[in-house]
Predict the 3D structure of the following.
Amino acid sequence: MSEQHSEADKSLAQATSPYGYAYWEWVAREDPEYAKARIPLSELSVGEGKALAIKYREMVIIGILAYRGAGQEGMLAHMRRAIQHGATKRELLEAIESAAVPGGGPTFAAGARTLMQLDAEGAFKNG
């Protein structure tokens, strides 16, 4: 594959999803029409310029992912994006604690383990 084609795939993948999942680059290469069709959905659901700030929308997503037992890759990506948009460790912890009310112990454990990993990596420079 050419380097130029690879860069175009990366660019389309980033427009499709802001989380850096490797599979979106693969989808962009294999079915660019589908990847392009996902861009408006991504912009509407997790894009900028909405009434609810990105960090809070990410916290909603994190709670749902924790409840559904999603893999840590997804939880990490969404927590990192929340942090990039100003979420603190305390805010993320409280979001996970809130998700545990309807979701129970497994939901809390999934979120707490992910949060612990980010804390160990030094992701929280400002609390």
